[in-house]
Structures are given as structure tokens and as C-alpha cells.
Automatic annotation (TrEMBL):
Record keywords, A-Z: Dioxygenase, Oxidoreductase
This protein's record includes keyword Oxidoreductase: yes
Pfam families: 2OG-Fe_Oxy_2
Keyword Oxidoreductase assigned: yes
GO molecular function: dioxygenase activity
InterPro entries linked: 2OG-Fe_dioxygenase
Organism superkingdom: Bacteria
Name recorded for this polypeptide: 2OG-Fe dioxygenase family protein
Amino acid sequence: MAEFAPRFCSPAQLNTALREDGYAVLNPDGVVEWIGQSLDDLDAMHPDWDNLPPDDYLKDGGRYRQRRHACFTVADDVLHLVPHRAHWQPVEYNALHGGMQRWFAPMEAHTLVRPAWRQLMLSVARAASALRGAQTWHVEAHQFRIDTAGGIGRPTPEGAHRDGVDLVAVALVGRHNVKGGETRVFEANGRRGERFTMTEPWSLLLLDDARVIHESTPIQPWNENHGGYRDTLVVTCRAQAFQGDDV
């Protein structure tokens, strides 16, 4: 299958693209400008993905996903780490894994104190405020590694979905010896959709979760004699409360 490049926008165009199209994609240079940190600062975080424990909640029986999780609030441009908590989604948004508390391993402290991490979280929250208005944001961050040790890895085993939040950000941290992993974004209440493959580390996709659904296709190894993986960072912003606290 042919790979399609994302339709990148500039940081100055990002808020407009989110409002008009429901999603926006920054290339790595755009992310660097957007958060005010260098690409070297971002790349220095990549080794933090090498020590992710297995996701023990996969209902398809797979062992292809490793992850860590952390939660924050952002108010008045101040990032605050909250006590470690379970990740919860309703079945309406995640038919496969919704309705249960999933206690993932917490992110490591050295990740959370990096200036690039802090500025990335704050920038995502600012984008949520530009979309919905300034308020306190309940932010969840997930480090993912999807590997091909079993022959195939599924970034979104639940299929095309919304997350039940206000804003979703998906950063490609890295890819190694994989094909696939195409991103697909569709209007939630319409016909329009786009597909593209993020291949450059620290490309960043932002989604208005009320307007679009999204998924990533499975990955397979290019060279079947060697393992492959796809590393991502997923950040969500939700107004009012973390999911599960207001039900």
C-alpha cells in the first residue's frame, strides 16, 4: 500500500486548522517551534520508551503493547502531577476495553521533570483552551510501544474511535523496522476522511475529539528476521473531570 504524507500546518495555523478541519498535524520543526524546545531535547526522551512494561489488559490476547501512564491538571498555565490513578473509558468510546479500571505502570520520574515534557504538556493544554476556552484541563498521558514480536502489532485494537475527551494529541516518537501504522481520521458525523503515515519522529497529530474519529492500522516488520516497533505518546485533555470521576 502506498504511503501518504501528512498535510502539515504551521504552528500559526494550528488553532485554525483544528477549528475548521477537526484536526491538525505539525512536522518536527513545527513542534520545536510550538513548544520552544529543541529537537535534541525531544530526542533525549526517546530512551524512556525502552523500559515500558507490558499492557496486561489486552482483551484480544495479544502481547504486542507496552505502556506507562500519568495524569495531570493544567490551570493558568501551571502543570500539576496528580496521584497515580486508573485509566477508565466508557464502553461507548472503547467497546473493547471500556468499562473497567486499568492500572498501568506510572511514568518514570525522570521523564516527568524534563523541560521538553513540561512544555509539550502545556502546549497541548493551550491548544485545548484555544479550542474550548480557558479552563482547568484534566490531562492523561500514555507512552506506548507497539511491537511486532508476534508478527503483527495493533496500535488501536479497538478500531476507529473517539476517546471521550476534548482534545487528543498523538506524537510519533519513533519507528524501527516496521511497515503499516497508517493514521486514519474521519468526520464523526460526515463522509470526509483522510489517511496518512507519520514517519518523522516528533510529528504531532492533534484531534478535536468531538468532531473526528481516528485509528492507526496494524504494523508488521519490514525484515521478518528482526523485531520492529512503533513508539508513540498520546495525550488527552478533558474539561471538568477525569473520565470516570463524573459518572
